[in-house]
Amino acid sequence: MTMTSQEKAKPIKIGDIGTACEVLCPLTPADLPPLAGEEPEEAFKAVKTGVREKYDYSLDGFSGLNLPVPQSREEEDAIVRSFLRGLEKLFSRENNWGFLQPTTLSTEYCMQCNTCNDACPIYLESGRQDIYRPNYRSEVLRRIRRRYFTPAGRLLGKWAGADVELNWRVVYRLAELAYRCSLCRRCASVCPVGVDNALLARELRKVFSQEMGIAPEAIHKAGTVQHLKTGSTTGMMPPAFRDTIEFIEDLIEERTGRRITIPVDKKNADILLIHNAGEYLAWPENPAAFAILFDAAGINWTLSSEAMGYEGVNYGVWYDDIQFARIIAAQVKAAKNLGAGKIVVGECGHAAKGLLCIADRLLTGDLSILRESCLPLLESIVTGGAIKFDPSRNDFPVTLHDPCNIVRLLGIVSPQRNILSKILPSGRFREMPQAGIENYCCGGGSGFAIMNSQNFPEWRNQVAGRRKARQVLETFADCLDPAIPKYYCAPCSNCKGSARDILQQHYGFKEKYNIHYGGLVELIVNAMPGLPQPYISWDEEF
């Protein structure tokens, strides 16, 4: 049976996680806070008969993992045993040397103040459902650990704060809960003692992937596995990459009237530029803009056509240390093979997180290489004076989305703003109500943007992406007139994908309000004088 509305009105306690009911926290559009000027959401689509019986939807009525319902007591017990093995390894230095210390500290030092609640966009936009509190899944983890791995918990149970008894429902719901967090780490930024609930969500994902083989197909099979097999998560292989570069050179000539030869496999270049390969297929105007700008600035740079060398993403950063390490090593090898001075990551947040931050403990000795985000480099080009820009070419309202992994994690806050101050007319840039390290996730972080199985996209669009939609409406509230074109600048491929799927396709902001999205480098090139036509075309989908 599904929990009744009266039961749901009561707080869902930590110990309720294993309750035998059809849906622990059934979510409806009526639970979601309304968006100003927007019609109420339609009812969530019913899961087809046969599918609901086959897969587990018992957390909130949605499935992001396609977990098959166990058919016997033996299968149920095997799920629990496998999870406990993985959990034991999670707190072992031998098995988790890279993240053991922060994982242990975040597990042991929470004060239960729940300051994190009001920092979480998913919790807020769900109508404050208890299961989406950042601390809910973390506290389930803590109590399981106490119950099964401490003498006090084994002996005293609930009297020692160890009142979660494992069954298959607990394991499956915890797995789904690990994918109800976008890993934006906004909660960690407000915690008075530095507890990182997003890290714990990610570490849970690691247990499920590395020990139990549980991960979203889009992230694992069609993600890291395909990446290692073909050289890219898109499946693009080296011959296709070279063809794509020729297409981009044609695009540049069409837009600028100049033929630019994009350097590929140039030896000993100062910079190896690595894009999210999705840019080449979905937004080729972005890598084209980099080529135009670098050519004008006289940058000594190159791309790589080696498999793994033209794809900057690393989905392992979201869920699996082993896959992450394999991809990082191959990416750095491609740079080393060309003798590049350093790797510069294009406009992609999680690619920057992986290469610039998480990889630090892996890239030692012969694997050591300089790595940086493109944003400081773009800032130096724009503010250096070698290229004169005409801000009047960007005479329209612009706001800036701060990608979580670039801004909150890496602390790159000022360069993009300094750039905009040079390429926009006075008064055209407007900050979001919460900006910089306080900004909200695009709604597609941690893999959400590419997870399209079952009914998960409905949850992503209406819950995970709702706060960003609210921000955009608030930011452009004084100019929502569709006669005024507006630009949502998102210097991240993943965030642009979310803007396309959530803001444009789900909420219809382009049709209703003439709000467009795109990257930062396109705005820079649009402000370059001498172009025969604007680089940004409002008639195209960015």
Automatic annotation (TrEMBL):
Annotated InterPro entries: 4Fe4S_Fe-S-bd, 4Fe4S_Fe_S_CS, Cys_rich_dom, Helical_ferredxn
Entry-linked Pfam families: CCG, Fer4_8
Gene Ontology molecular functions: 4 iron, 4 sulfur cluster binding; metal ion binding; oxidoreductase activity
Organism, scientific name: Acetonema longum DSM 6540
Protein name from the UniProt record: 4Fe-4S ferredoxin-type domain-containing protein
Keyword field contains tRNA processing: no
Domain of life: Bacteria
UniProt keyword list: 4Fe-4S, Electron transport, Iron, Iron-sulfur, Metal-binding, Transport
PANTHER family hit by this protein: FUMARATE REDUCTASE IRON-SULFUR SUBUNIT (PTHR43551), HETERODISULFIDE REDUCTASE (PTHR43551:SF1)
Domain named 4Fe-4S ferredoxin-type: residues: 101-130
